[in-house]
Structure formats: structure tokens, C-alpha cells
Amino acid sequence: MRRWGVELEGVEVGNAWALRSPATPHTNWLLGDHGGIPAESLRLLRHGGHPDGPERVEDLALKWFAHDPADPPAWGEAKPLSVGRSLSLLAGEGAFELRFQRGEEELLVLLEHPGDYALWGSGIGHSWRVLKPSLVMTLRWRLCEG
Fold first, then answer.
1. Are strands 85-90 and 134-143 parallel, antiparallel or unpaired?
2. How far is CA 51 from CA 36, 38, 54, 90, 108, in A?
3. Residue 136 · residue 89 · CB < 8 Å
4. Number of structural domains in the chain
5. How far, in Å, CA of 95 to CA of 112, rounded?
6. Residue 12 C-alpha from the chain's centroid
7. This prediction's pTM
8. Strand partners, 125
9. pLDDT tens per residue, range 27-70
């Protein structure tokens, strides 16, 4: 994974394989309620000691798509501001570029190794571009209010 630009609050990037603990290889959680997910991470669905257990989510959507550089460029342009949280993960070989904007600040991320991911929160503009055929999985959700 490569990055250019400024680090934006509300955007996390990494590689799912790198999150794996060699001591406990069976705990390959990328997001959710797991002790290996830092409390400040957007990947955590629990706020420290939440009395009712994991936070509930709504408007959960999962999609995967085999993107190709021949896809119409308009598909990845001018996306609306994000609501809730979104995670895009490169599920195989490829090169998939994500551009994030908040005001004048911009971050460019290239997902290029299997497991590379970007996770972003509300109020962030984004667009994407396909550089090589890429299988991308995207998960979107909102935390329930109250």
C-alpha cells in the first residue's frame, strides 16, 4: 500500500494480513468487538466498556465488485460525502486507487496487495480509480443512535 498527501482524521489504512498475530493466527478479526482492535480505531464497534455489549449497527451493506481499468471513469468520481463508516478491502491482486478529501486536505491511497484496506468515517469525500483489474469488497454501516 502506498499513500500520498496528508493523514486525514477519520481515515485508517493498513493491511489485514499485518493485523494478524502470529501467536494466535485464528483471530483474524479486521473489525468488530475483539481485544486486538485498538480503542481509538474506527474498526472497533464498542466504546470502552459499553454496558450493552457491542454497538448495534444499521444500514449494513456489503458488496464486492471485479473492477477493471475499462470501467467507466464516472463510476468512481464525485461520490457523495460519506455517512457512517465504509471499509474497502482489496480481496485479491490488483491496483485500486482511493482519493479522500476533507476541505482542502487530500489523501491518496493505493491498494495494491491482497488485504490492503482503507476505512473512513462520516463527512469525508472520496473517489476511486482502477489501475489494474481488482476485486474489491466494500462494507458500509452506521452505528445506531442512542
1. antiparallel
2. 19, 18, 9, 34, 38
3. yes
4. 1
5. 4
6. 7
7. 0.79
8. 101
9. 555 665 566 666 666 666 654 445 555 556 667 788 899 999 99
Q: What is the DSSP letter of 32?
A: B
Specify the residue for cell string 499485518. 18
Cβ atoms within 10 Å of 100's Cβ, excluding its own? 22
Cell of 24: 494466535
Position 112 in a domain: yes
Question: Is 129 part of a structural domain of the chain?
Answer: yes
119: its cell numbers: 476505512
Query: Residue 113: how many CB atoms within 10 A of its CB?
Result: 15
Indicate whether 45 belongs to any domain. Answer: no
Enclosing domain of residue 88: 2-20+56-143
Give pLDDT tens digits for 98-123.
999 998 999 999 999 998 999 998 89
For residues 66 and 49, what is the distance between their CA atoms, to the nearest angstrom? 39
* Domain presence at residue 48: no
**Cell numbers at 13, concatenated:** 489504512
Tell me the CATH number at 107: 2.60.120.10
